[in-house]
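The aim of this short unit is practical: by the end, you should be able to scan a pair of folded records and say something sensible about each. We start with the first protein, listed as its amino acid sequence and then its structure tokens.
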Amino acid sequence: MKKIFLLLLAFSSHAFTSEPQLGLYDYYYNLDANNVTATKNQSRNLDELSLVDKAIYLESKKVGREAGIYKAESVIKSMLEKLDYQLDAIMDVSYYVGSYKNHLVIPAIVIEMKGRKEYVNDEHSAFVYAGKTYVIHRQPYFSDKLPNWKDYIVLRSEPPTLPDKSLLPSTEEQKVIWKDGFNEGWQSGINTAIESFKFQSARALFDMNGMKLYGMLRDAKILSEPIITDSNYNVTGSESKLELDSGMVRIVTKPIFNHNATEWKIIPELPPISDLLPSKYLEMIEGAYYDK
């Protein structure tokens, strides 16, 4: 699983060029791209531009960013299509998904953390520690479909829209200004799309790995299964509605850890999620859950 994640991230450094293609310039006012490298990566000082030139620069930067995101996401989509079969197999968690009367029960997400040290007083005269810690990060829930890595990858950018004609360059100097802004926006768009994809991939790996870890701990009797009840109401409704054979299915007891080690079974170990993901993505993912 780690190899696939690294493969997904590695493409960002060489899967496509960061320079705009000529076709994009042709699409936007037939600009000549022969001199694009001469002004590459230069950021304009807006205070030195007239109001008209400043508007042209900002518009070109916006268009370039949209074009960069669209281009990067197109490359990402192409890459994912080639890896579709491998990702489906490696990120498959169907074995760990439970069911209750034809209702899917998505497993809890459990994370493993290595090493913990916490001082118990302000004088730091004593501390508690743990070599390994398991934490239930998200509790199980019902779903109408199996989780899939594709659920996490959102690539919905549209081709850039043409700006108002008043914001298009008309002089040679304005064309240079346009290229400067376009290049800056293009690189920003590329970087934004790559960073977004990295985070989405990290979150998919985080969840899938956590579900598998839950299943392994459950099978080892270290973690309990959820308890689900089904209440049958027979006839329900109101004066304007009648429902037959109705009821409610709910999770009444969430999984808890079994602290009686004599009941545990030996299980293979998964690598801690901290070994699979860069720390900045791990912190962002955990923060996203805690903020809910």
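Turning to the second protein, read its sequence before its tokens, just as you did above.
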Amino acid sequence: NRKSFRAYAQQKFNTMKKIVLLGRLGINIPNFQTGITTKGIELFSGTNLEEVDTVFEQNNYKIDMVIMGAGISLENRLQIIEYIFTVSKGTTVHMKDWNSGPQGMLPFVNNVLSGLINES
């Protein structure tokens, strides 16, 4: 039945977790998503506060999680965190370590997602 499929699809879309991935050079979502092991998520990418603001605004400030790479300057990361905690009471923020380098981003994201989404 077409109507029930639409209702199912809308419910499924509404329950998808919205995740923002931040990196100094940006994150190519289609390439990155092939390595993500968690299902039921919608990924967004950004590199700075302005892009974070745009993603939050476009999603009515309903972002579940922000995962941030260490390549963004500390000053900018702190500004982004302050913004997130000002506009949202439900968004969690996770910051990757510096030592694992860019190649550590995908494993870090998978670990955060599996720990916080798969168990909820």
